[in-house]
Amino acid sequence: MTLRTILTATVAASVAFTAVNAADLKGRGASFPGPVYKAWTSEYFAATGHKVNYTPTGSGDGIKSIKKRMVDFAGSDKPLKADKLVKAKLYMFPSVIGSIVLSYNIEGVKDGELKLSRAAVDAIFTGKATHWDDALITKNNAGLKLPHEPITTVVRADKSGTTFNFTYFLNKINPDFKVSKKPTWKASKVIAGKSNSGVSANIQQIKNSIGYIEYSYKIKLGLPAAQIENKEGLFINPTVASFQDAAKYATWTADNDFYAVIGDPAGATSYPIVAATFILLPTEKTEMNKKVTAFIDWAYTHGDKAATELGYVPLPASTKDEIRKYWEAKKIK
Amino acid sequence: MGANLFRNLSFFSATLSFFLLVGIFAVLFTYAQQSMQEFGFDFLLTEEWEADEDDEGGIFGGYIPIIGTLLSTLIAMTIATPLAMGIAIFLTEIAHDKIVKPFSIAIELLAAIPSIIYGMWGLFYFAPIVQLTIGGNGVGLLTAGIVLAIMVIPYMAAITRDSMNTTPDVLKESAYAMGATKFEVIKDVVMPYSKGGIIGSIILSLGRALGETMAVAFLIGSIMSIPKSITDPTTSIPVLLANNFAEAQDLEISSMYYLALILFVVSFAIISVAKFYFLGRNK
Q1: Model pTM?
Q2: Which candidate, A14, B105, B222, B236, has a CA 20 to 30 Å from the CA of A204?
């Protein structure tokens, strides 16, 4: 009898829970901003009582789901060009800026000690440099003892917006490198891991490896990361300050739904591998879109602290205002 | 009335498994059509797997994952089979009664460990050992093969032990009475008697090794390249499917169904051949 009571109660509770869930906002997509969206949604719930569910499944999945109208909004690290947006009937705007670091596992080389010039990054990921004591790498690292060991590059096993933004930077250094969410890597020793956590785990396990991961994973796991040479020829440590400097150079306009890839910005103090992440909305669902923009508007106003703590960079105030005007123009605010 | 109901129920259960098999095959076959028409049988020999920039097409080929699946399974079976046979023989014929029970329980518990745990253990503990002793990156074909072997040993050993236990004592005692040594009894009485069970255990383990996903995904390196040495990273069919399914569209999805169909047919073929050839001849 007690068992039956418990079962009935459980079923009733889960039904009630589902009913509440139906009114929530559902989002899916990019895993790159996953941690900051998670912080925003829980703070938003605490402040307003509105629930937003965001599942970080990957940019490609986000685009696919919003095209099929399976979710209320989608996240994507790869901006869509105007013609694609028109075809799929979508609105687009950026939400936050993040960055990609090159994390390594070399015995005796601590966080921030390794300096990688643009030529060295290119040589490592195209396979021109096969050992850590390659002249291209040692040239800028006179004080370090780099071993004569083969370089293992760790990349993403799945298609990824992070890879898209990293290859965008590689393409800026070496135009032969194709921008892609999952390129065919030409480096001599390559290992792939699924998602940022898979890549991080591989870097931790494999000696003399290097790989690209989102900054918050470097912080969370305490992985060492390299200084990267920026457009002005200076070596820059990945820090929130250098990301903020980089973000100032992004140019966005509402005319093309804020389409912009912001990697490799100008500025002497800018960290070079930064990336914006975007929100996609279905054009015809005006009422639902108003709820989504209300959430994002709240995040623009109140979410900067959470974003900074997690290693992201909030959008510049002027960009936020542009986006608010864009919402008003589209009548979704 | 009751008997009739029971008869119908059991008939339903039996036919359900058959229809599920046919249903799964039909679904895989239908979804794979787009890719089959695009690539045909060249799919089996194409080494590339790259989507176009806008995700709407590309070149997809199954050669590398197919080779990777077969090689990792081969390594696993080569290691697991002799070890599992040894365990079973030890437990049924050699070990003292007092230690049989704890050993048997330990083996059965090994079989109960979820594969993700083997994957994590393999990556964080075992891969560095392989890198240190044999070389390579730590993750690769060999590491995946060895961990796969460890995963299938409990199945193989437990089933083989059970089938060896069915050997009637009379047979063994008669052999001993004729002056046979322990080795001869095992070789000429126990093994032939339990041959069906032994082959069955190998087939079941083979099926598990072919389709294992999580542990292998952690350990094989997930790289689309042909391994040149045994420690090189490569990929396998289930690993490629697990890594790419969420992000793929159109032709790529269809190509994945094509790969799944190939895995399905290969497993099915191996199991049927083994079953009809070995077990049929045994009768």
Answers
A1: 0.82
A2: B236
